[in-house]
Every structure is written in structure tokens, then in C-alpha cells.
Design brief:
19% strand; 9 helices; Rossmann fold; single chain; six-stranded parallel sheet
Amino acid sequence: MVKYAFRWMPCGDAEAMNNGYFITGTDTEVGKTRVSVALLHWLQQQGLRVAGMKPVAAGCEETAAGLRNEDALALQAASSVTLPYDTINPYALAPPIAPHLAARDAGILIDIDPILAAYRTIAAQVDSVVVEGAGGWRVPLNDNQDMSDLAAALGLPVVLVVDIRLGCINHALLSAQAIAARGLPLAGWAANHAHGDYARSADNIASIAARVGAPLLGVIPYHGDITMDQVEGLRG
């Protein structure tokens, strides 16, 4: 069972913190949901009413209640308030492929406006919303927009989850550069060993930390507890 023993130490005013965060990653399957759920738990420990949101989810399973996504259900369970699943996950898609392709196969067009409407509904009921993206920063949503357009429309500070492995330095720095290019603050980043231990892990983490221009929120071991012991602070 994953434990959430955090020392997230936000800096900046409470109003900025209460706006919430947009969680993105250097790729798919890098641990965005683990970090999102842990952040929800930490925010609740600060006395805030919180909710998680997964606007677009591919790889959903058919249930008696309709299509459901494991990550979205985890965010729903970690929220302070009970919200309809369709509000937390407006676009639930069955195939475990890129969202724009899954939507095309289903005859659906992913539109940012309904997502923003759902976000406002959630935000009106809580102090802070943790929004988890799908895949990486530039994953397409439709023919003209991608995940970065959604993040920009929401206007939330971003937390970047980095999968620590060969090539992660380049992935992390390019992602951080792209986030800055959209004019969004990078609140911090988490180093996650999503796919196993890596022999040069410490060196890679140090290299990213020296260059990324945002605080390291913590290091998550492979299949271990999330401790986030190296937090320097969230910048709202």
C-alpha cells in the first residue's frame, strides 16, 4: 500500500496555492496519478477542501455505470467532496491510445470548453483542484489543440513528473522549456522511478535540478512509498 508522508512546503500566498495545480509528465505512465493523489492528500492535511480531475482519459474500462478510468477513479476517491464521475472525467475513452486517436475512433471531438465548464463546477465547491493531464505536455486533443492548450486555458501552475531513466534529462528540460513557452509557472517537479531503479539516478536527478529552474519536490522510489523528503517548496 502506498503511503503519503509529505513535507510539501509551499511558498507564496495561500490564494495562489488554493488555485490548484496541473500535473503533467515527461511521457505516459510516469506516475502522474501517484503524485496527483499524494498532493490531494497533502492539501487536505492543510485543511483545504480539494478535488481531483482527469479531463481526458484513454484506456477506460466498460462498467455497469459506463466507461471508467482507473486514474480518474483514484482522483475521485482522494477528493474531499463527492462529485459525479462525468464531471471529474468529461472525456472517457476506451482504447489505450493517444486521446485524439481514441476520440476519433469513437466519433467524438474533444473540446476544451466542456472541460473548462466542468473545472469551474468543481472549483466552485472546493478550495483547490488538482488536474491531471493525459500523457505528456504536447499530447494532441484534436486536430488543432493539445494538452498544453488545456493547461494554458486553465491557467494553473504546473507540476512536472519525470520518469528517472536513460534520456530523462533531455525529456525533463524540453518539457520545462515548453511549459515556460506557454507562460505558465513550473511550480516544481517530482523524480519518479516509474519503471525500475536506474544506476545513475542520483546523477540524473542532480543534472535536472541544476538546470530546470524549479524546485525538486521529492524523489519517489520504484514501488516504494512516496516520501518527498527533498522538498524545497511549491511556487504558486
